[in-house]
Design a protein that fits this description.
The complex is a heterotetramer of chains A (310), B (522), C (330) and D (403). Chain A is mainly alpha-helical and 310 residues long. Chain A has twelve helices and two strands; from the N terminus they run ααααβαβααααααα. In chain A, strands 1-2 form a two-stranded antiparallel sheet. In chain C, 38% of the residues lie in helices and 23% in strands. Chain C has a six-stranded parallel β-sheet with strand order 2-1-3-4-5-11, with helices on both faces. A six-stranded mixed β-sheet of chain C has the order 7-6-8-9-10-12, with helices on both faces. Chain C is α/β, with parallel strands linked by helices and 330 residues long. The chains are: A mainly alpha (310), B alpha/beta (522), C alpha/beta (330), D mainly alpha (403). Chains in contact: A-B, A-C, A-D, B-D, C-D. At the B-D interface, α10, α11, β18 and α13 of B face α11, α12, α17 and α18 of D. The structure holds adenosine-5'-triphosphate (2 copies) and magnesium ion (2 copies). The site of one adenosine-5'-triphosphate has 14 residues of chain B, from α14.
Chain lengths: 310, 522, 330, 403
């Protein structure tokens, strides 16, 4: 039975669908990582994903333009991010709950708007699969890595980009400093608030893109609560990656690939209880961390509002 | 109103600040009037020193000047124009720099990153850490401060962090530089080098404000001296003609003795023995290389050395906060190598940690809650080990506050709103109250005012008289000389020599701290 | 029903939203249709949606009952237990719940109707079609969790496929989620890459799977309500629920003072289950014929779908043309 | 905002405790606009919301029943957050707690005396939740696995496990034979029902002469012993955290692990302990849901159908209660009221349930945002009145009480 899993189609299938499933996590987790690196914990990712998913879907449905769809998603994400920033940075609200508030708002609002604008579920023509010339010709590799839609490629391009920004630019240095010791950053003449507004807004935009990558690329439909908790997994993956883009990438791929694997296992009729198979990705994510030797450097100021003179 | 012929822009490229004035500054904190109608000013080319006991209001006044606090009243003028300083960013823009008493460093970042933070990059938007590192190394050389630009700050001992804090400021080269207790943990050599630098800066036309609790330093470097007490200016005098005792009287309001009565104590048997102790630093590099020494009952063993040569690690290993990779630690006849702190507490060992804010207290807890940090589980603080006894706890706290004269509104004040000097007194009070057999005191008077220093020193001596074996770790040679019976010098994780206080002198110790072996040095 | 001008008032509590294209919407549509037919002045209905939290649903049911609605419908098999606890407190209110067959009469309760959907029947018919339409002989089914209406449909569909083509391979995957579209998509993709060319599925997350089928032009069968609008070019047919078929007799009973104790079922025979073909999709004659045949066989009772008591699935037996259940619904 | 514009401290001392209420009203105002857009009458809507939460004895009972798990999870959160661990695993811990109580109830002989039966099941649910939380604790303390990650994952694992058990081991034999095979247990035997306290309340009312001898006031409601247990436990947790040495250590480790280690506290053990206790309380919440409300477990509708999302809402309640067990009591009741009233609003005004979700989100956002003013004034107040330290944290209150 297990033998059935060890043929090319299956392995390619697992790998490539692992990559697809990982895409929304990458957007959301990288965005969340920026926020957390600067000291803001945003538990509202799920809500932002849903708003992004709906906005993109709605725009593409009405204009037929994917570009506009993405722009709309980015805009609504920025707005949600700004809202979170106002609440958690300017109003210094307890970040844990404000996030939950944002989540519920997004969960409800996306559904409400959907019911107002559509009488029935419809599909849109989303991002087509792009087979990268030459590269996609490579056996196996080509099928696994170079036959995806644009948003998948973008998601993976984000990882090195995020790494570069964090570690090689002055902005990245400011972000890291603000997340570790805002007082110190402040005395160096850095505006803690401005940095955090930037990261949280960026996080909102990326979370929104995560939603869009579902509603106008992978699935091409919208449905209430279609993200089904992926936003929270995305937050968990930031911890898995201990706040490093590379780590987040590994986490997202591990979680998604195991998920794809367990689906294939059952597709191939290997009979283990479906419930246990579904547990696998969650279980393995934890186990991986247990055995991984980890350099945990949690931003010291994570979820702590900053106020000068305290 | 140019005071001297110096050019209007400084070598660092900043516009010179001829005259900065703070007028009628008032600042309230919960239960405290930290600044009460304070007038203060500094001119180009001068060093204006600010003196005062812990909690007198020095840092607060400076934090106001640097935009970290907003005054409740009063105004700041620069060269006659009213300066609106609402944030450190504003202050920096105005050409003001500050060396912070409580270091403003980002632990997870490297030295170079800390220095580069917030500075324009030559390759914006990209970082230019290599360039920064080079300049740091240069600066370090010129100012005789040794630093490694690539090293993450969290791995550095307090003394090393102090150097980074200084380098950071010098790197930015402000027209008006505030130095809030920059010398608290520097070696005499380092202090001398720093002073050379400061004199050069004044010659160039910088204006400097210098805060220290060490009067000889103040007399040595400053042109004018202003003394604060309880937020009010007690007086302002020229440095010429000022005397230690005179200044002390102004600060404390009474006479202060600088010579302690330390009667000869018959030393007993060995209470703390360290044998070939080896341990690693946070970097994983060897920090202790086969360190051995004894401390007898009724003896104070002074451990001198430049910060970062293993003092921190040694104290941590002895107290079970860091595991020894080799060797043994004996408490009396008992092998306590790698035992947990709770065991050591029970066996009568006390530790006054160098990082008081991180290790010594829980800043969000009240004074009372910090008093019972170790003994909350024992009568009378707890009933039957399970329930706390608020009445007893409050009583003990009040006793200590009274006995050690700790400045705090009351025992239920969060300890973070006490001045560090008073926090230090509280830690000392807490540890001594337990009548330890062995006491490890790391930087016990760092940043503590002379009144408190005098008091703390006396306490240590009394403790010695009662037969406690004390290991005194300090970078302040005067302190070491004043208190120790024997002096060991630590250099790169090895004891380069143990000399008897009577035949030790500062020059010799200085050489040993530079790695020269005792025999050769003497 | 509507005695002395008083409108007949119905309240329904549903686990998901009234626009879920599935279980909840099918009931909402039925009530709307009845209101359409009888006029608002004679027939009122209110709904409480997204009551996935069972104790909230219980509160809603109790609240409706105490507000004097004539009929209170608990539209979800997870509500039964709560319903049985509160029904006795409201003897003048009639309750209906489903999908289940238990009217709690053996607990001495007299005011609960039960209803179910024999979705295995439509499943079977669609399975027959699927087996004939599949060229690879591999057919995939995406389900949520293996229980209730979903299980019936899946088992029925599987039985239909194997009845028609015993060598066919049926891939069933219960993905353990009602809402995760991405997971449904991945499951479907795995099936398609294992050569499946005909797919079906049930519950709210199937649009994810439909999308994948669409990309490679595999055929799709829907259930619970029509999914043709989602993918006109690949949807062969949908099994559509028409709850009016069970609601009408309940109303009649109530008019005659019967407040409960009866169990009803949507079946092909009573028209509660309708195979709704996609007009835009040309089907081979023999497939249509086979479908009609299967429907007739089930209606007439020539074919009996026997549900295995161990939950193992559904087996098909030749029975003689007539069944009791058929009579009474007449 | 400018602190020196601060006027009358006394006035604000009266206003501040009510701040969350004002914030809620503000949120509802925004909600009113949305209601109008959905052409629903806000007045009617909000009357319904109130009616649903407090309008009748049944409503009050429902609110309290809803508040019970929030409170239990919430006081657990007080322990873990004070101990410096973020336990977002309430959902999973409730589920395993419910499963434990259910499984035990199905195993125990029918002859078990009610008192013993209840005690055993409650204990079992606490233990199960404690283990589930303890796992996350051990992972954090000994393997450096971040607890937010592990608890999020453990939530999902618990859900799948529940579905499995209810589909196989625990399923009601009758259901197992039906075609639909609904994955739920049989109803638990009656002696496993938490006593309804309506009767008792009525007796009390009669004794006080508030009602006539044969009036039924609360007797008809479903109010069960759970809320009483929860309140007692809240008080117990308060005492535990601020009057016992273990509580002191938990708080110390939460505030500063380094200093705690220096003080001789075995930090890792206390990290595990915090999650253990907070998990146990969540587990207890699950057990009480089974024995007080559901009387069985069912996998239909997934985990949330059972927990009612209390695992997360409990966090909100606790933080609204300033992470203080006593403060969490009113916070839970108000949040419970909002949830119960929201459903009633949806029923009466027939707006989409999504609108209610939005509304609750808004309330949460507005309330947390309003905290700032209270905090700043609190600080300002002590300065003005020269009394005590800024923004005095609850821990010092216990000390003060000792005077
Ligand atoms: N942010 C603050 N909150 C509350 N009280 C404060 C704050 N900053 C300073 N204080 C109080 O103001 C007084 C002056 O503190 P300040 O730091 O200026 O003293 P200092 O002269 O710097 O003492 P030291 O010599 O120990 O540095 C102290 O009593 C301190 O407790
Ligand atoms: N967040 C805070 N809340 C309350 N008081 C504070 C806070 N931060 C600093 N302080 C007080 O502000 C004053 C700042 O003094 P600072 O800590 O700079 O010097 P210090 O602590 O007195 O150091 P030392 O005693 O070594 O000179 C201290 O008295 C400290 O108690
Ligand atoms: Mg100071
Ligand atoms: Mg000081």
């Amino acid at each position: 039975m297990i033998g059935d899993l060890l043929n090319a189609t299956v392995l390619i299938g697992i790998a490539s669908s692992g990559i697809q499933l990982a895409t929304p996590y990458l957007y959301a987790s990288i965005g969340e990582m920026f926020g957390q690196r600067s000291g803001v914990l945003n538990l509202g990712v799920e809500g932002m994903m849903l708003m992004g998913a709906f906005t993109a879907f709605y725009t593409v449905h009405n204009t037929g333009s994917l570009v506009l769809g993405v722009l709309a998603a980015l805009m609504i994400g920025a707005l949600m991010g700004l809202a979170m920033a106002v609440i958690s940075v300017t109003l210094q609200a307890e970040q844990g709950i404000s996030g939950i508030g944002i989540y519920l708002f997004g969960l409800g609002m996306s559904d409400l708007l959907f019911q107002k604008s559509f009488s029935q579920i419809v599909t849109v023509r989303g991002f087509p699969t792009i087979r990268i010339p030459l590269l996609s010709e490579i056996p196996v590799i080509g099928e696994v890595f170079f036959e995806h839609n644009l948003l998948v490629y973008v998601a993976f391009a984000l990882v090195p980009l995020a790494w570069f920004v964090l570690n090689k630019t002055t902005l990245g240095l400011k972000i890291r400093a603000v997340g570790q010791n805002p007082q110190a950053a402040d005395t160096m003449g850095i505006s803690v608030a401005r940095v955090r507004y930037f990261t949280v807004t960026l996080g909102g935009m990326l979370a929104s893109m995560a939603g869009a990558s579902l509603s106008i690329a992978l699935l091409n439909v919208f449905q209430q609560n279609m993200t089904a908790g992926q936003g929270f997994i995305a937050v968990a993956l930031v911890y898995f990656g201990s706040w490093r883009p590379g780590g987040v990438l590994i986490g997202a791929l591990l979680f998604s690939t195991v998920n794809a694997l367990q689906l294939w296992v059952r597709t191939k009729g290997i009979d283990i209880p479906a419930e246990y198979a579904s547990m696998a990705p969650y279980l393995l994510t934890i186990l991986a961390l247990v055995f991984a030797s980890k350099r945990v450097d949690q931003p010291a100021a994570l979820s702590k509002p900053f106020e000068r003179g305290d | 109103m140019t005071s001297n012929g110096a050019p209007h822009t400084l070598p660092t490229g900043h516009a010179r600040i001829d005259h900065m004035e703070m007028k009628g500054i008032v600042k309230r904190f919960p239960g405290v009037l930290a600044a009460n109608q304070v007038d203060f000013d500094v001119r180009t080319g001068e060093v204006h020193a600010l003196l005062g006991e812990n909690g007198a209001g020095k840092s607060t006044l400076m934090k106001i000047l640097y935009g970290m606090y907003q005054p409740d009243a009063g105004q700041i003028t620069i060269d006659g124009k009213v300066a609106s300083i609402h944030s450190p960013a504003d202050a920096i823009r105005q050409g003001i720099g500050m060396i912070h008493q409580h270091f403003m460093l980002v632990p997870s970042l490297t030295v170079a990153e800390n220095v580069a933070l917030g500075m324009p990059s030559s390759r914006a938007p990209m970082l230019d850490l290599d360039v920064v590192s080079e300049r740091i190394v240069q600066l370090a050389k010129t100012y005789g401060l040794q630093v490694d630009p690539e090293c993450p700050v969290w791995q550095l001992a307090v003394g090393e962090q102090q150097r980074i804090e200084i380098i950071k400021a010098l790197y930015r080269g402000a027209a008006l530089l505030i130095l809030d207790e920059p010398t608290a943990v520097l070696t005499p050599q380092e202090v001398d080098d720093l002073f050379v630098t400061l004199r050069q800066m004044t010659a160039d036309g910088h204006a400097l404000i210098f805060i220290s609790h060490k009067l000889h330093e103040v007399l040595n470097i400053s042109d004018r001296i202003t003394v604060l007490r309880d937020g009010c200016v007690v007086g302002s005098v020229p440095a010429q003609g000022a005397t230690k005792s005179g200044l002390a009287r102004m600060m404390v309001g009474r006479d202060v003795v600088f010579q302690y009565k330390r009667d000869e104590v018959q030393t007993g048997d060995v209470l703390l023995r360290v044998e070939d102790l080896t341990a690693q630093s946070d970097r994983g590099t060897p920090a202790l290389r086969a360190v051995s020494f004894d401390v007898h009952a009724g003896e104070i063993l002074g451990l001198a050395g430049v910060s970062g040569n293993g003092q921190r690690e040694l104290a941590q290993v002895i107290f079970g906060l860091r595991s020894a990779t080799g060797g043994k630690v004996w408490l009396g006849s008992q092998d306590v190598t790698n035992k947990e702190p709770d065991t050591l507490n029970a066996l009568g060992m006390s530790y006054i940690p160098e990082e008081r804010m991180l290790d010594g207290v829980i800043t969000d807890f009240t004074v009372a809650e910090n008093v019972i940090l170790q003994e909350h589980g024992q009568a009378p603080c707890s009933r039957g080990r399970l329930f706390l006894n608020p009445r007893a706890i409050l009583q003990r706290s009040s006793e200590l506050i009274r006995a050690f004269d700790i400045k705090t509104p009351n025992a239920n004040t969060p300890i973070k709103s006490l001045s560090g000097g008073n926090i230090q007194k509280l830690i000392l009070a807490r540890e001594l109250r337990r009548k330890p057999r062995v006491l490890i005191a790391a930087q016990p008077t760092r940043g503590v005012d002379i009144g408190a220093t005098e008091y703390i020193h006396q306490c240590l001596l009394d403790q010695r008289a009662q037969g406690t074996a004390t290991l005194l770790i300090s970078e302040d040679l005067d302190e070491i000389m004043a208190l120790s019976d024997r002096i060991a010098v630590l250099y790169e994780g090895t004891v380069v020599g143990i000399v008897d206080r009577k035949d030790a002198n500062v020059e010799q110790l200085g050489l040993m701290m530079a790695g020269v072996r005792a025999d050769a040095a003497s | 029903q509507a005695q002395d001008g008083e409108p007949f008032r119905v309240a329904v509590v549903m686990p998901s939203t009234v626009n879920d294209l599935a279980f909840s919407q099918s009931m909402y549509d039925a009530l709307a249709a009845i209101q359409e037919e009888r006029g608002e002045e004679n027939f009122e209905f209110v709904y409480s949606e997204n009551m996935f939290i069972v104790d909230d649903a219980a509160t809603a049911l109790r609240d409706y009952a105490s507000e004097g609605y004539d009929l209170v419908i608990a539209h979800g098999s997870q509500y039964g237990a709560s319903l049985a606890e509160l029904a006795p407190d409201f003897p003048d209110t009639a309750f209906a719940w489903g999908t289940d067959i238990n009217t709690y009469t053996d607990e001495g309760i007299t005011n609960i109707f039960a209803y179910e959907a024999r979705s295995e029947e439509g499943g079977f018919v669609q399975g027959v079609m699927g087996a004939m339409l599949s060229e690879s002989g591999v057919i995939g089914i995406v389900g949520p969790i293996e229980a209730g209406d979903a299980k019936l449909y899946v088992d029925g569909y599987k039985a239909g496929v194997l009845y028609t083509n015993p060598d066919a391979e049926v891939i069933v995957n219960y993905i353990q989620s009602f809402s995760d579209l991405a997971l449904a998509a991945a499951a479907a993709e795995a099936m398609l890459e294992s050569d499946a060319d005909v797919l079906t599925g049930t519950a709210q997350m199937v649009p994810g799977a439909i999308g994948q089928a669409q990309e490679v032009g595999a055929l799709w069968f829907g259930t619970q309500s029509s999914q043709t609008s989602l993918a006109p070019e690949i949807v062969v047919a949908n099994q559509v629920y028409d709850w009016t078929v069970v609601l009408e007799p309940i109303f009649e009973n109530m008019a005659n003072g019967v407040m409960g104790g009866e169990a009803y079922a949507l079946t092909l025979e009573n028209g509660g289950l309708v195979i709704d073909f996609n007009p835009d999709l040309e089907l081979p004659e023999e497939v249509m014929a086979a479908a009609e045949e299967a429907i007739d066989a089930i209606v007439s009772g020539e074919l009996v779908l026997v549900v295995d008591e161990t939950g193992a699935g559904i087996t098909v037996e030749e029975g003689e043309p007539m069944a009791e259940a058929t009579e009474e619904a007449e | 905002m400018d602190l020196s514009s601060f006027r009358n401290p006394r006035l604000y001392r009266l206003i501040d405790p009510l701040l969350p209420l004002f914030a809620t009203l503000a949120a509802l105002l925004v909600g009113a606009v949305m209601l109008l857009l959905m052409n629903a009458n806000p007045i009617t809507a909000y009357r319904a919301l109130y009616e649903g939460a407090f309008g009748s004895k049944n409503a009050v009972a429902d609110t309290l029943i809803k508040a019970t798990p929030l409170l239990l999870v919430g006081i657990g959160i007080c322990i873990s957050f004070r101990g410096g661990v973020i336990n977002v695993g309430g959902e999973g811990q409730m589920i395993v707690g419910g499963l434990a109580a259910t499984a035990l109830a199905l195993e125990l002989p029918e002859t078990t005396s009610p008192a013993l039966a209840l005690l055993l099941c409650l204990a079992a649910s606490f233990a199960a939740g404690a283990i589930w939380g303890g796992i996350a604790g051990a992972l954090k303390a000994y393997f450096k696995v971040n607890e937010i990650l592990s608890t999020i994952m453990l939530n999902q694992i618990a859900i799948y496990w529940m579905i499995y058990l209810l589909n196989n081991t625990l399923i009601d034999p009758l259901k197992a034979q039906q075609a639909s095979r609904i994955p739920e247990t049989a109803r638990l035997p009656r002696q496993f029902d938490l006593p309804r306290i309506g009767e008792w309340l009525d007796t009390l009312y009669k004794w006080l002469g508030l009602v006539g001898p044969d009036d039924k006031l609360w007797a008809t409601t479903l109010l069960h012993l759970g809320i009483v247990l929860a309140v007692i436990l809240a008080i117990a947790v308060y005492i535990f955290l601020w009057r016992t040495t273990i509580g002191y250590r938990i708080r110390a480790v939460g505030k500063n692990p380094r200093a705690s280690r220096y003080a001789g506290i075995r930090v890792k053990r206390y990290v595990v302990l915090s999650l253990l206790l907070s998990g146990g309380l969540a587990g207890l919440a699950g057990g009480i849901q089974v024995m007080g409300v559901r009387h069985r477990m069912s996998a239909e509708g997934g985990g949330i159908a059972f927990t009612g999302n209390a695992g997360f809402n409990g966090i909100v309640a606790a933080l609204f209660g300033q992470l203080h067990p006593i403060g969490t009591i009113p916070a839970s009741v108000l949040f419970g009221a909002l949830l119960v009233g929201g459903n009633k609003l949806q029923r009466d005004v027939q707006v989409p349930s999504a609108l209610i979700t939005v509304l609750i989100g808004l309330v949460i956002i507005f309330v947390v945002s309003s905290e700032l003013w209270r905090r700043r004034r609190a600080r300002r107040r002590v300065i003005v009145t020269e009394a005590g330290p800024p923004d005095r944290p609850p821990e010092s209150q216990a000390m003060e009480a000792g005077r």
